Amino acid sequence: MTERKKEGLTLLGNKGTNYIFDYDPELLETFQNAHPNRDYFVKFNFPEFTSLCPITHQPDFATLHISYVPAERMVESKSLKLYLFSYRNHGDFHEDCVNKIADDLIRLMDPKYLEVWGKFLPRGGISIDPYVNYGKKGTRWEEVAFDRLSKHDLYPEKIDNR
């Protein structure tokens, strides 16, 4: 039995990928963290995130930054890509998308720490950049989460790169 099948991964290496166009958290898959006794960050940058405005149904485009400190389970990257792709026809406000992604990943992996930052392109002359984070309760990561959130935007970036 291959390592991929033993982990229960069905998407990695699958040549017949089926792209889902409606929000579907069931696409997410995990695998065992080979280094659960060491704290380290895993960061995903997804520059092609799209969703729909729930009111106008116009497309919204963003770069998503997802960082986490794994515990026992890690998210498999192809399943994450397909999950994020499933937002393409999903209507939600920017803040809701970022919070929903965080909630789904926390439920999936039970990480020590997680943050999701959406940098949405301007529409109507304004950009919206929601940020959410989570630290596992009762651990030092709970304090890290509060500290990072409270200092998150002390030095806002210059918005001339979009």
Mean pLDDT equals 90
Helix content: 25-40%
| Stretches with pLDDT under 50, minimum 5 residues | none
Report the CATH superfamily: GTP cyclohydrolase I, C-terminal domain/NADPH-dependent 7-cyano-7-deazaguanine reductase, N-terminal domain
Class computed from helices, strands and strand pairing: alpha+beta
Q: What's the CATH class label?
A: Alpha Beta
TL;DR?
With 162 residues, the chain is an alpha+beta fold.
Describe this structure in words.
The protein has 162 residues and is α+β, with helices and mostly antiparallel strands. It has a single domain, classed as GTP cyclohydrolase I, C-terminal domain/NADPH-dependent 7-cyano-7-deazaguanine reductase, N-terminal domain (GTP Cyclohydrolase I, domain 2, 2-Layer Sandwich), CATH 3.30.1130. It is 25% helix and 25% strand. It has helices spanning 3-7, 77-85, 94-109, 140-150, and strands at residues 30-32, 42-52, 59-69, 73-75, 113-120, 131-135. The strands form two sheets. A four-stranded antiparallel beta sheet has the order 2-3-5-6. Strand 2 (42-52) and strand 3 form a beta hairpin. The N and C termini lie far apart (47 Å). The mean pLDDT is 90. This is NADPH-dependent 7-cyano-7-deazaguanine reductase. Keywords: Cytoplasm, NADP, Oxidoreductase, Queuosine biosynthesis. Its EC number is 1.7.1.13. One of its GO terms (biological process) is tRNA queuosine(34) biosynthetic process. InterPro entries: GTP-CH-I_C/QueF, NADPH_dep_7-cyano-7-deazaG_red, QueF, QueF_type1.
